[in-house]
Automatic annotation (TrEMBL):
PANTHER family: FLAVIN REDUCTASE, FMN REDUCTASE (NADH) RUTF. It comes from Plenodomus tracheiphilus IPT5. The keyword Secreted does not apply. Keywords: Oxidoreductase. The keyword Oxidoreductase applies. It holds the Pfam family Flavin_Reduct. Transmembrane segments: none annotated. SUPFAM superfamilies: FMN-binding split barrel. It comes from the Eukaryota. This is Flavin reductase like domain-containing protein.
Length: 767
């Protein structure tokens, strides 16, 4: 700001603050009237006291959440509010402040210092609920907000206070309910933190759906005569992780800047006999009183009313180069539309990432560099990026799950760099990865993956002495990796899979600064240190998956998630992607498919589906890009033949559902069989089994000894059919005009399947 403009800027800023602090308070006037009329004044006069000249009270209830606020697991407001506001309210706020000049540098510095200071002050966390109705559906909704500013004011009478940031739908609802509301005190455990998390996502349709689906004992009163209803008619959370609830009535309202302090009288307390303390909030994390953190599974935040940016979910299968570039452009437009996203501080970058529908790092998009690029394009002064990021491209070349071919390119680049100057290895590891074109968020890439080939090529000493205990270059991280692998080998699988990274770093010579380099590699570390759990006997899909294997993995994931049962889906959806893969007998380090995107897309569908009965059909619709419902007879035979010849062992072991997925067919796919008037389901007892068995018989003798033995064993045990090495192969048809061996095989199969053959048709025998 130039010197000539500073007095004017200070005047307007001071005037804005004075105007906020001197607005008339509708509640103050109301409560003075109430005290004059007695404590039990009628509801009619009480309700009219809330009319006030606050234009923001007219905001709709079903807007999307404000993008500048986050869940408390990511960011906190020093004023004690963890609430989102809806999109329309956000716009109103922006209109009110965008024309006001920025505060001077001294004030900004003071704000930053206060914010940093208050991060280190532990605060209690509570959930405030109030009666609310969706204006579109007229449905009673679980409206509420998490606050970190709750405190007692007096004990005689019992009074509490907290503050809300305006505009606030929760504040509007409290006013509409004549000052009545309910406060819940969550316990200091994962369940309690999860409750707070769910009420930190704003008040809109997706957030209401999320709360209903995630909180098992959330009850929203509809009628007053229900014995469970209270005077406030506020939603009630009677989960086991809520240790107490209070019914309250507002007695005083005090506007301060852009917040409103509410003072309320406690009307009643409903307390459970629990020994667990209440959850705390400290340094952006949920905490217990002993200082240990509480981690919660944060569901994706329905972030923005800009539908363009939601197109990241429109991929028919997985996002490729075209889709990620489009997503990058959509993010740029989103950033430029809201200048609050143009700040480069860590806190603001975290806000931005949480405001997006899908994590950009997962697609190799460097958000900090992208924000800097937006500032340059808008002609804004651009604070210098860290040295390591000044020449970094927005899009990393390699990200996510690295295919074998990508790893080879990375290794060759590393060899060329080190042969030119070995001091590249002295760089910060994140900087080294950037020089190699690799995202810092890449999965399953370990420092040794780079160092071993360099040693094999004679470019690095076999024993490194350059690592130290403070600088995170590849030498130090390789040492930590070695210690980590040795330590994880001493643990049982359950321990190795669940131990916190703080614990693992403590036992391997690492610290908080080294955790990010290993966090995405836990599946890889588990496969290295738990060979029995991840043996070939337990996993039948590994490496770089083919298209057929991709379809089988997708089918198994959907089957595991149990998308037709809400309680089961809620139980399993929080399982880590790597562990889900292991449970469905797939190596968690597979490449060639974006498992994380697929799971995130299913969760996105779940969060935006109002009625659970519509969830499974939408997931089926999602799978339409991979599986067909109709197929011709000739095409079916061709696919079965290709499947058996490519993977004969799997043809003998995989379930019928997996076989159909490998063929690219939906579970209910149908085929028009020659001689049949009505299309038949491919999964019927006879049809697919007959085709697979015939191809296995024809393939016998041309495979490896292991494959031939497996085929002979399968046909003998399943159909009591003795297979013989073939001297000559002839084309077969699935009818009675076959050679003797074909008829023999077919009759053996049909007999085993309890099927009669009469008049050239197959009929199931019922006993």
């Amino acid at each position: 700001m130039s010197l000539a403009h500073r007095p004017a800027a200070r005047f307007f800023a001071a005037f804005y603050r004075w105007n906020l602090q001197n607005r008339p308070s509708s509640l103050c006037a109301m409560f003075s009237h109430r005290h004059r009329c007695g404590a039990h004044s009628t509801h009619a006069s009480f309700a009219r006291s809330y009319h006030a000249t606050r234009h923001l009270l007219q905001q709709p209830e079903n807007g999307l959440p404000q993008q500048n606020d986050l869940s408390p697991s990511k960011i906190e407001d020093i004023n004690g509010i963890l609430e989102h506001t809806d999109a329309n309210q956000r716009d109103a706020t922006r209109i009110a402040v965008t024309d006001i000049p920025d505060l001077d540098a001294e004030t900004e510095a003071l704000k930053s210092s206060l914010r940093a200071l208050m991060r280190n002050v532990p605060t209690s966390v509570a959930v405030v609920t109030a009666a609310g109705v969706d204006p579109k559906t007229q449905e009673h909704v679980p409206l509420g907000v998490a606050v970190s500013s709750l405190t007692t004011v007096s004990m005689d009478p019992p009074m509490i206070s907290f503050n809300l940031k305006e505009p606030s739908q929760t504040l509007n609802a409290i006013r509409a309910a004549k000052g009545l509301f309910r406060i819940h005190i969550p316990s200091a455990n994962k369940g309690g933190a999860n409750i707070v998390e769910k009420f930190s996502q704003g008040n809109h349709t997706a957030a209401y759906n999320m709360r209903r689906k995630s909180l098992r004992k959330l009850w929203v009163p509809i009628i007053r005569r229900d014995s469970r209803s209270t005077d406030s008619m506020a939603p009630q959370i009677w989960d086991d992780d809520v240790q107490a609830a209070m019914e309250c009535t507002v007695t005083q309202e005090l506007p301060v800047a852009d917040h409103v302090i509410l003072v309320a009288k406690i009307d009643s307390i409903e307390r459970r006999v629990l020994h667990c303390p209440a959850v705390l909030y400290f340094q952006g994390k949920y905490m217990r009183v002993d200082g240990t953190s509480i981690k919660v599974h944060a569901a994706p935040t329905p972030a923005t009313s800009d539908q363009t940016i939601q197109k990241v979910w429109d991929c028919a299968q997985f996002p490729g180069e075209k889709e990620r570039r489009e997503y990058m452009e959509h993010i740029k437009a989103f950033i430029k539309a809201d200048k609050s996203h143009l700040e480069l501080g860590n806190l603001n970058i975290a806000r931005l990432i949480m405001a997006l529908p899908y994590q950009p790092q997962a697609l190799g998009i460097n958000v900090r560099v992208l924000v800097a690029e937006c500032r340059s394009e808008m002609g804004l002064p651009n604070p210098q990026l860290p040295v390591a990021q000044r020449d970094t491209p927005v899009l990393d070349e390699f990200y996510g799950r690295l295919a074998p071919s990508s790893r080879e390119i990375v290794i060759e680049r590393a060899k060329k760099m080190v042969s030119h100057d070995v001091r590249f290895l002295d760089l910060e590891y994140a900087t080294l990865l950037q020089h190699l074109g690799v995202s810092s968020f890449v999965k399953d890439l370990l420092p040794s993956d780079i160092m071993k080939p360099l040693r094999a090529a004679g470019l690095v000493d076999s024993i490194s002495t350059k690592g130290n205990d403070t600088y995170n270059n590849i030498y130090r991280l390789e040492k930590i990796e070695k210690n980590l692998v040795q330590y994880m080998r001493t643990l049982r699988f359950e321990e190795a899979a669940s131990r916190s990274w703080d614990h693992l770093m403590e036992h391997s010579g690492g610290d908080n600064s080294t955790k990010p380099y290993f966090r995405n590699a836990r599946p890889r570390l588990l496969t290295m240190t738990q060979p029995v759990v991840f043996s070939r006997e337990n996993l039948d899909i590994s490496g770089h998956v083919s298209e057929a294997e991709t379809r089988v993995v997708l089918r198994r994931i959907v089957h595991y998630l149990f998308v037709s049962n809400q309680s089961q889906y809620r139980r399993y959806k929080g399982v880590a992607p790597g562990e889900i893969l292991r449970r469905v007998h797939v190596d968690p380090t597979i490449t060639g498919m974006d498992v994380e995107y697929f799971l995130a897309k299913i969760e996105h569908i779940y969060q935006f589906t109002h009625h659970f009965r519509d969830f499974a059909p939408k997931v089926n619709e999602l799978l339409g890009g991979w599986f067909e419902y109709d197929i011709t007879w000739d095409e079916l035979k061709s696919r079965v033949k290709q499947f058996v010849e490519a993977t004969p062992l799997r043809a003998t072991k995989w379930s019928k559902a997996d076989q159909m997925a490998a063929l690219g067919l939906h579970h209910y796919a149908k085929v028009q069989v020659p001689g049949q008037d009505v299309p038949q389901e491919v999964r019927s007892d006879v049809l697919l089994a007959t085709l697979v068995a015939k191809e296995l018989r024809d393939f016998y003798g041309t495979g490896t000894p292991r494959e031939n033995t497996a085929i002979a064993k399968f046909l003998k045990e399943t159909y009591d059919y003795e297979v013989h090495a073939k001297a000559h192969l002839q084309p077969d048809r699935l009818d009675l005009e076959q050679g003797d061996s074909s008829i023999e095989l077919r009759e053996a199969m049909l007999s085993n399947l309890n099927v009669d053959v009469s008049g050239g048709t197959m009929a199931k025998r019922y006993k």
